[in-house]
Amino acid sequence: MAHRLGFAGKKLLRMVLLLLGVSLAAFLLMSASPLDPLQTNVGQAALGTMSQEQIAQLEDYWGVNDPPLERYLGWLTDVLHGDLGTSLLYRVPVTQVLAERLKNSLWLMAAAWVLSGALGLLLGTVAAACRGRWPDRLIRGWCLLISSTPAFWLAILLLMVFSVWLGWLPIGLSAPIGAQASAVTLADRLRHAILPALTLSVTGLANMTLHTREKLCDVLESDYVLFARARGESTRSILWHHGLRNMALPAITLQFGSISEIFGGSVLVEQVFSYQGLGQCAVTAGLGSDLPLLLGVTVVSAALVFGGNLIADLLYGVVDPKIRARVRAYGRKGGA
Amino acid sequence: MDRLLNQRQRALLLSAFAALALLAVTVAGFLLSDAAMVTDFSRKNLAPCLAYPFGTDWMGRDMLARTLTGLSLSIRIGVLTAAVSAVVALAVGTAAATLGRRVDAVLSWCIDLVMGIPHILLVILISLAFGKGFVGVVAGVALSHWTSLARLLRGEVLQLRSAPYVLTAEKLGRTRLQVARDHLLPHLLPQFLTGLILLFPHAILHEASVTFLGFGLSSEQPAIGVILSESMSYLTTGKWWLAFFPGLMLVATVALFALLGDRLRRILDPATIHQ
Q1: Which of A251, A275, B182, B275 is most buried per CB count within 10 Å?
Q2: Which of residues 95 through 124 in chain B touch A, CB cutoff 8 A?
Q3: A95-335 CATH, one of 1.10.3720.10, 3.90.1150.10, 3.60.15.10, 3.40.50.700
Q4: Cβ-based neighbour number of residue B68 at 10 Å
Q5: Interface of B with A in 27-86 (CB under 8 A)
């Protein structure tokens, strides 16, 4: 147990260091930008009519003149006190914006994550079981097609078919337009989330399917499966008892590693559907040079990615009997 | 089954076809770049017909010419960025594997760091740092795609260095350079080449995506991302061809690149040489 905790602690420390690195890298990249936040947000024409004092005031507000290192250290001290700064575009604390957007996005991403993982596993198993025959060819062709399809184009297509032509689903946003926040029902939210979640799941599918197929094909060609067949086990039993167990580990890594891809997809999909989520927030912040907000989004998304990797590492110990045995041996040796 | 050609020959034929098709699109787009800019208000908003197979937009520009020009631009950016990425990956991967444990730890940490930021977000950040536009998107895509290939090459080099035949060669007194040239390179080259070609689809997709979001090529250029983001404003009025055909061509291009990489891997992989 102590070993497991030590392992988790080491991983956690590494994750915190990586997060620090991410925030510093993102900060440096943003402060290296030659784009003038005043030009993008106030506009050339308005700037021309302003007095020097007004411009100086605005420069102060957007933090143009402070040296980057000082700003980063200031930001970091605030973060340690639980304050991510104030969004320059929305004029509310970044934590508030992030919490609201994350709530919208999390459902979307979780649904897409579960759906693409489960469907990918299923399709991959079917393809491996029929390898070389037409279902396998069909599934592989389909995977090549969807992994070549940009998420935003798929989103546009679905929008055209289901919202414009058929009129079944709303054309965008995460809630009905003009409705008050209190009047939005769960059904409304679900209706608005169907298309974005569908797009995200479909684009995330290909990786998992192909990987599952590859691994299962290896397993099915192994000697122990040949032996199992000779013993008279059915294909279903072989897949269940030998296939799934042997491909569980890489599948876990892949599935938890796909959080980064899903987040990337959500940026595009939310932009197309004008869905008020984290991804759309990143685009708005980037286009409007809202440094604190973009920094917040980057750190939160990186934390999601690293958190996924951490969970995968910890699950390894639970799922893999070899690691379990090693931990037990270590415990005995340590206890004696 | 009695087949005319074996798998290798068919793979070669298919890759030759894919390469030719991509080359044709690149050249056609290059030649049509002037035609893509022509506006003619007497023919605006035409649905696809024989004269304009992809229709025309609200300024009477021929969508076929615009699409091909955009694709040509995408392919050229894709080739450039994938090449830069692959070279970075090769440098980082071999450096991590050969320059000792400390360098390895630092470089592996860097790879983890870059992989931790979702791809799109990283491309956006780098593009912002370079002031958006052509330079921004090229730098963004080139500097964010090297990680997985670098990790692959690092593992490969580590494995090769402890392989018996490499150890034997070193014991026989061959210099490091000779070992690298005669034993490591022939082994790494196929991995590197297929890795390079499999980077193209990602590079092209990310370039289009980032341009679509407004962080890439400027809106005067007929890039695929620009075309698709403009088409968004005309969706609700039923002008489906503005988004449908350019996107379809993009999918076809990316799929061709992916197919090319996959077939080349099969051709170069020594394990499948006799199939």
Answers
A1: A275
A2: 109, 112-113, 115-121, 124
A3: 1.10.3720.10
A4: 27
A5: none
Q: The domain at B7-44+56-272 falls in which architecture?
A: Orthogonal Bundle (1.10)
Across the interface, whether the CB atoms of B113 and A18 are under 8 A apart is answered yes
Question: Distance between CA atoms of A140 and A143, rounded to whole angstroms?
Answer: 5
Looking at beta carbons, which residues of chain A come within 8 Å of B235? Answer: 156, 159-160, 164
**AA identity, residue A251:** A
- Name the one residue in this structure whose structure tokens are 């895509």: B141
Q: Is A7 exposed, middle or buried (0-12, 13-18, 19+ CB in 10 A)?
A: middle
Q: Could you tell me if B212 lies within 8 Å of chain A, comparing CB atoms?
A: yes
Å from A332 to nearest chain B CA?
31
User: In sequence order, what are the residues at sequence separation of 6 or more whose Cβ sits closer than 8 angstroms to the Cβ of residue A87?
Assistant: A93, A94, A97, A285, A290, A292, A293
ipTM of the complex: 0.82
Rg (chain B; Cα; Å): 22
Question: Which residue in B117, B212, B243 is closest to A160 by CB distance?
Answer: B243
Cα of A273 to nearest chain B Cα, Å = 10
Question: B231 CB near a chain A CB, below 8 Å?
Answer: yes
Say if CB B102 and CB B52 are below 8 A apart: no
Residue A327: strand, helix, or coil: helix
Q: Are A164 and B112 an interchain contact pair (Cβ–Cβ within 8 Å)?
A: no
Contacts of A256 (CB under 8 A, 6+ apart): A308, A309, A311, A312, A315
Contact B125, B215 (CB under 8 A): no
Residue ranges of domains in chain B: 7-44+56-272
In sequence order, what DSSP letters do the residues of B60-92 get, joined into one string? --BHHHHHHHHHHHHHHHHHHHHHHHHHHHHHH
| Secondary structure (3-state) at B211 | helix
What are the residue boundaries of the structural domains of chain A, listed by start?
Answer: 37-83, 95-335
Which residue of B1, B14, B108, B113 is the best one to mutate when testing the A interface, meaning the one whose CB has the most A CBs within 10 A?
B113
Please tell me the distance in Å from B125's CA to the nearest CA on chain A. Answer: 6
The alpha carbon of residue B254 is apart from the nearest alpha carbon of chain A, in Å, by 5
pLDDT tens for the 336 residues of chain A, in order: 566 777 778 888 888 888 888 888 888 888 877 776 666 666 666 666 777 777 777 777 666 666 777 778 878 887 787 777 777 777 788 888 888 888 888 888 888 999 999 999 999 988 988 888 888 889 988 888 888 888 888 888 888 888 777 767 666 666 666 555 656 666 777 777 788 888 888 888 888 898 888 888 888 888 888 888 898 888 888 888 888 888 888 888 888 888 888 888 888 888 888 888 888 888 888 888 788 888 888 988 999 899 888 888 888 777 777 777 776 676 665 443
Which pTM value belongs to this model? 0.83
Nearest CA in chain B to A289: B128
**Of A18, A144, A272, which is closest to B112 when you measure between CB atoms?**
A18
Amino acid at the residue A35:
L
Q: Cβ–Cβ of B212/A26 closer than 8 Å?
A: no
CB atoms B118 and A264 under 8 Å? yes
